[in-house]
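> forwarded from #structure-qc
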């Protein structure tokens, strides 16, 4: 389903002054495509993504997921929508410090509820074990985790704690954590910022792969390489 932003306005108050960050944004972000939202720093890219993800409500306007209007939903409904449907990565991409990288991924998968749903599905199909005492779900999760970490150059760090990782490694680990549930909608704020060229390319290739496999991918970026990869581009400009 497409995501439609209808006359979105976002204002903030600071002391006694009011600032308009987004002014009458009208755009449809296409389903199953790799979308890049670009623009100068401070133009409102993060604000727009937060509104699309239901993390922030617009001052005016509405957001539609297909025919479903989400801006009127309550916090619990929005949280459930994100859990069931989305993978969201904000610029604050910290990992849980007392868990290893791979444990951070597994926890994100467990929290999503997909672990339990898939177990129930396997049980209904009488395939909860392969005859050797191994659960197919655990094997599938391990395989996909390994695939993500390999694609992001993190395979050798799977058992490291966040304190042992560089800022770039933490960012890439946060990307893997966001993707571990194979979300239908992926929203990431500046996922390639402050990465070297090799890792920028690795991240973009991975996100592009998810979009070609059917996920809707929406990121913010000022990287020309990211913009060049986009199926759909939307540039934000400063309000006047």
């Amino acid at each position: 389903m497409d995501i439609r932003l209808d006359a979105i306005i976002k204002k903030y108050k600071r002391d006694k002054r009011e600032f308009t960050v987004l002014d009458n944004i009208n755009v449809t972000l296409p389903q199953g495509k790799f979308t890049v939202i670009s623009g100068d720093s401070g133009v409102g890219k993060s604000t727009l993504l937060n509104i699309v993800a239901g993390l922030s409500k617009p001052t005016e306007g509405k957001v539609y997921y297909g025919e479903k209007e989400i801006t009127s939903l309550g916090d619990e409904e929005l949280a459930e929508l994100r859990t069931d449907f989305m993978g969201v990565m904000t610029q604050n991409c910290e990992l849980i410090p007392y868990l290893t990288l791979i444990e951070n991924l597994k926890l994100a998968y467990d929290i999503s509820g997909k672990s339990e749903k898939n177990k129930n599905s396997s049980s209904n199909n009488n395939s909860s074990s392969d005859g050797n005492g191994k659960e197919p779900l655990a094997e599938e999760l391990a395989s996909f985790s390994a695939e993500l970490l390999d694609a992001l150059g993190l395979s050798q760090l799977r058992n490291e704690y966040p304190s042992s990782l560089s800022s770039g490694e933490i960012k890439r680990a946060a990307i893997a954590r966001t993707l571990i549930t194979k979300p239908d909608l992926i929203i990431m704020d500046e996922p390639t910022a402050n990465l070297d060229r090799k890792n920028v390319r690795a991240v973009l290739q991975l996100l592009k792969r998810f979009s070609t496999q059917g996920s809707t991918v929406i990121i913010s970026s000022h990287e020309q390489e990211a913009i060049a990869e986009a199926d759909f581009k939307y540039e934000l400009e400063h309000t006047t």
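QC bot note: Strands lie at 3-14, 17-29, 34-38, 60-65, 68-69, 86-89, 185-189, 216-220, 232-235. The CA atoms of residues 33 and 192 lie 18 Å apart.
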